[in-house]
């Protein structure tokens, strides 16, 4: 009888161990494995968030890099514009007439520093032809930042200092939009505004096919005519005034002094920095 009880107790112990094993497995499954699964899920979520953040950063950096903040307009007969980003790199080269498009296609200036790009442009064979023929080359700077514009203009003037027929000007972003709407580079559009101020009958279509030398010659011609007309008007006005007051000696003296000052004032300053000719035929 005792042996049967011992045998039963032994079998009960075996069953108890099996139950313990099953419970242990369930515990591990619920606690340890679930924790690992949760940790893996957290890592995946973190990786996804990091990837999204990286994409946003790259997209933002790309937008900043490829957004122009300043332009250099280069106008001779070819008209083209160099788009410059906030990092002083060339990100676009756009031609605004047939010669300008052909020149833009032949150049490899993108992603260069703008000062190096400008030197390469001026050293280009086609540009050398214009420079050697003494054609007027106009470089105009405009953009969003006054500090960047000033720095670029200073660099442009330095690059152009070795050439007598390169003229440098500055503009503003509003002119850029109007120029592009009119199908012109903003440097040529600026010259058009100056010319139209002197001769309102001038049209965009006429200017579009002109070289910068032709435009500047017209500006000087109309400016000189305007200056001479003002001088003659002042002279006639002074003569009438002197004649009407001839009985007053002191008044005559004062009017002669005034007339002398008026007749010498024959110089007028051009729009947007374009100098007009003065009385001696020299450019300002």
Task: Give a quick set of tags describing it.
284 residues, alpha+beta, five-stranded mixed β-sheet, 10 helices, 63% helix, disordered C terminus
Can you walk me through this structure?
A 5-stranded mixed sheet has the order 3-2-1-4-5, sandwiched between helices. It is an alpha+beta fold. Residues 253-271 and 275-284 have low confidence and may be disordered. It has helices spanning 2-65, 98-106, 114-122, 125-132, 146-160, 173-181, 186-198, 204-208, 212-244, 249-263, and strands at residues 70-75, 79-84, 90-95, 137-143, 166-170. It has a domain at 70-184. The protein has 10 helices and 5 strands, in the order αβββαααβαβααααα. Helix content is 63%, strand content 11%.
Topology:
Blueprint: H1 2-65, E1 70-75, E2 79-84, E3 90-95, H2 98-106, H3 114-122, H4 125-132, E4 137-143, H5 146-160, E5 166-170, H6 173-181, H7 186-198, H8 204-208, H9 212-244, H10 249-263
Parallel strand pairs: 4-5
Antiparallel strand pairs: 1-2, 1-4, 2-3
Helix pairs in contact: 3-5, 6-7, 7-9, 9-10
């Amino acid at each position: 009888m005792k042996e049967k009880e011992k045998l039963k107790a032994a079998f009960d112990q075996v069953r108890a161990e099996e139950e313990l094993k099953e419970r242990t497995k369930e515990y591990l499954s619920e606690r340890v494995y679930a924790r690992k699964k949760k940790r893996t899920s957290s890592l995946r979520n973190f990786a996804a968030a990091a990837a999204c953040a990286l994409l946003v950063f790259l997209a933002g950096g790309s937008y900043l890099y490829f957004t122009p903040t300043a332009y250099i307009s280069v106008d001779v007969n070819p008209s083209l514009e160099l788009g410059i980003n906030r990092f002083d790199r060339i990100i676009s080269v756009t031609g605004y007439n047939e010669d300008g498009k052909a020149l833009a296609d032949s150049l490899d200036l993108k992603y260069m520093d703008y000062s190096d790009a400008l030197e390469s442009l001026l050293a280009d064979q086609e540009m050398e032809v214009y420079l050697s023929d003494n054609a007027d080359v106009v470089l105009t700077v405009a953009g969003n930042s006054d500090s960047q514009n000033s720095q670029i203009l200073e660099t442009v003037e330095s690059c152009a200092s070795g050439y007598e027929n390169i003229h440098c000007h500055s503009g503003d972003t509003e002119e850029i939009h109007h120029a592009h709407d009119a199908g012109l580079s903003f440097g040529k559009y600026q010259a058009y505004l100056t010319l139209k101020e002197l001769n309102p009958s001038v049209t965009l279509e006429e200017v579009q096919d002109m070289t910068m030398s032709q435009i500047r010659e017209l500006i000087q011609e109309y400016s000189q005519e305007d200056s001479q007309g003002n001088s003659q008007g002042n002279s006639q006005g002074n003569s009438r005034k002197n004649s009407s007051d001839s009985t007053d000696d002191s008044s005559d003296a004062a009017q002669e002094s005034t007339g002398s000052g008026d007749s010498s004032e024959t110089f007028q300053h051009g729009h947007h920095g374009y100098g007009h000719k003065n009385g001696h035929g020299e450019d300002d």
